[in-house]
Structure formats: structure tokens, C-alpha cells
Amino acid sequence: MRITCVGGGPAGLYFAVLAKLADPAHDVTVLERNPAGVTYGWGVVFWDDLLDDLFAYDPVSARRISDAACRWDEYEVRATGKSVSHLPGYGFSLGRHKLLSILGTRASELGVDIRYSSDLSVVPDADLVVACDGAGSAIRSQDASHFGASVDMGRNKYIWLGTKHVFDTFTFGFEKTHAGWIWYHAYPFDDGTSTFIVECTPAVWSALELDRLDGAAGCARLETIFARHLGGERLIDHRAEAGGTGWMSFRRVTNQRWDNGNVVLMGDAAHTTHFAIGSGTKLAMQDAMALADAVASGAPLPVALERYEHRRRADLVPLQRAALASSEWFERMPEYADLPSAQFSYALSNRRGEYPLWRYLLHLSTQRSVPRAMLRSALSARRWNRARRRPDAEMGVPLLTGG
Ligand SMILES: Cc1cc2nc3c(=O)[nH]c(=O)nc-3n(C[C@H](O)[C@H](O)[C@H](O)COP(=O)(O)OP(=O)(O)OC[C@H]3O[C@@H](n4cnc5c(N)ncnc54)[C@H](O)[C@@H]3O)c2cc1C
């Protein structure tokens, strides 16, 4: 089968890998508009569930991703006028750049033809065209009315930055300025860099002149606001460095249909998930798994594409709901700002509104160091056990951070 993926993000590259693994005779091409090695995002987080899936589908790339990932083992919440509080949980983070490099290398090893600097806006000729060209998909736009694409804009403004300050663990930081609250979601993703996503309401954004300042001046203002969190390090805005603007509103993309003849949507082109729950990359790669399974089943293409869409829509529902609740919490964040420290961080952790009462009691008790250390040890053991059960056991990988 001749397969062309338009877009060499996580979805496109991973699907190319899986299609080749399923049948080396497939002729698989990935067309990516950026030059090799160029991407604007920073690190992304993921959890054990994705690693389990990656090891099940391709242990080779899974091992490389796991080895390159940074581990963190709790959340910290820092807010002006409140003591630091802690939330249980652990996860992984990896630079988007590194992830794409691992997937691109793996795809090339398997014989995928990756053509960088190929900006495509017309549907290419192939047996199967996978439109994985991101939230603003040009392929989808070719037939927008067929796909029934709709885009809801989130209210808050955000910017995806990086910094050489290495955070100890996943940190939410809230600063109260003369204009109102502004906050960040930050986490280390290698031993020298952290992701630093800044978010605020549009009113605060304008009042702090972030709507008018150019990239460098905007970063300088944010460095002043968040100085006590950054250990003297700068904030880096790749998009501004490339002449673009980094501030955005989140675009929630949905589509009524995901396929049109031999063209199928995948990843952010099909659906986006707010970064507040850090799952878009995971969902994009799980789309790739589901599409690869459907194509490998040998069913006629229309049936395979229908099965893929059906499976993924069902899987997406709970996460989409959680993402919406989460992004709405951040839109209402100033309403929670007067809560005492532990209640504020609990409201943040329970922003999806799902926790039973015992979680609150656990939260209060784990603000003290001994119960917190005990809980961290228990979660660490769980992480270790889960890793041990994977096809390629990863025992002995040291914790890079927060350990
Ligand atoms: C601030 C922020 C933080 C995030 N944090 C996380 C996180 O922590 N964890 C997580 O799981 N997810 C996170 N995400 C979401 C994640 O980045 C996306 O969901 C994920 O990248 C989707 O993968 P994709 O392959 O579908 O699309 P993309 O990653 O957008 O890739 C699409 C590719 O297509 C290329 N392309 C576009 N148009 C064309 C064209 N016309 N021709 C050829 N190529 C084209 C693009 O250059 C790009 O390489 C975050 C998103 C944002 C905005």
C-alpha cells in the first residue's frame, strides 16, 4: 500500500513506524514542512499508560523514549502569599525535539521516506493519505465542510517558553501582579532545560502590556514577574526568535467526520486537547496505534477507517471532558486565589471535580514531610513495578529529577 502522512509530528512519524512494522512492503512517505530538527515546542509530559502502549507496539522506540525521558515524582504549587504545597503524582517529560528525533530515526531505519521542508496544501496521490498536519490542518481545510471541523477558542492567553532553570519537579507557580494573577506550568525535560508555559486572562495580558511587547521585551517582563522562580535564568521564546508571535489562545478542534475517501485525520488535525492535562501527544500517538491496527486488520479501507474513528472517539471522551474542566478551572483561577495554601492546591488538583473525600484528607496529611515521603516511596514502588512488567524491563534507570 502507498501511504503518505502529511505532517511529521508525533502522530505522523509514529504511524509511519507502525505501518512499516506491520508490513515492510508498504511504501510509506512522511511530508513535513519544517526542516529536519526544527520544532517550536518544548518538553511534553506523559505517564505510564503511554509507556505501556509504546512498549506493546514498538519496544525499540519505546526503549529510546523511556531512556531519554526525565522522571519527576510529585507536583509543587507555589503562589504569592502562600506556603509551598505538594500534590502526589509522578510522570515523565521529554523534549519534543528529542521525541521527534527518536521517531524520525526509527522511521528511517525501517525504510520510511521522510521528506523535510515539504509544505503540502493539496492532497497527495496515495492509497491512504493521513492528514496529521496539526490543529490548523491544511489538508482538512481542503474539504472543511465534509469533515465538519469546528474550532472553539479558549479564553485565556498562553505562551510556550523554555528556560535553562531546571525545576526540581512539575511545578505550578502563580504570581499576583498589580494587574492580577498570572501563572506557569513548568517541568524539567532534560538535565539542562525546563518547559515554562505562562497563562493568564486576556485582561491581565493587556494590563501587563504582553499584547504589545515584542518577543524579547515580553520575555523580559515575564522574567521580572517570575524572577523568584527562575533562579536567575532567562526565558526563551523560539517562535519570537523565528520572527513569529508566541502568545496564543488554545484552539479546541473537533470534527464531525474523520475520513473522506482515502484521506483520514489523525492527532491534533482530528481533535485537540488542552495542554492543562498534558495529553495531546499521547492521544496523537494512540491514534497512530489505532489506525495502524485498523489498516493491518486487512479490512477494506473504508471499514478500517470507520473502525479507527469509532475506537478513538470512545477513548477520547473522558480525557476531552477532563481537559475542558481543567481549562475552565484555569479560566476561573482568580476565584480560588484567596483560599489558604492547602485548599488552593487541592482545588487545583481536583479541577476536574472527580475526587472523593479521602483524597482531600490525604492531601492535607501529605503537606507534612513524613507522610509525603511515605506516599512518594509507595508511588515510586508502583512505578518501578509497572516498568518491570513491560516487555523490555527497564529496571535500574535512575531518577533524573525530584528523586
Ligand atoms: C503549550 C502546549 C503544551 C503541550 N504540552 C503537552 C504535554 O505536556 N503532553 C502532551 O501529551 N501534549 C502536549 N501538548 C499537545 C501536543 O503538542 C500535541 O497534541 C501534539 O503535538 C499533536 O501531535 P500531532 O502529530 O497530531 O500534531 P503536531 O505535533 O502539531 O505535528 C504536526 C506536524 O505537521 C507539520 N505540518 C503542518 N502543516 C503542514 C503542511 N501543510 N505540510 C507538511 N507538514 C505540515 C507541522 O510542522 C508539524 O510538524 C501541548 C500543546 C501545547 C500547545
Automatic annotation (TrEMBL):
Residues passing through the membrane, by range: none
Gene3D superfamilies in alphabetical order: 3.30.9.20, FAD/NAD(P)-binding domain
This protein's UniProt keywords: Monooxygenase, NAD, Oxidoreductase
Keyword Oxidoreductase: yes
Keyword Flavoprotein: no
Domain FAD-binding residue range list: 125-314
Cited Pfam families: FAD_binding_3 (PF01494)
GO molecular function list: monooxygenase activity
PANTHER family for the chain: 3-(3-HYDROXY-PHENYL)PROPIONATE/3-HYDROXYCINNAMIC ACID HYDROXYLASE, BLR0106 PROTEIN
Protein name: FAD-dependent monooxygenase
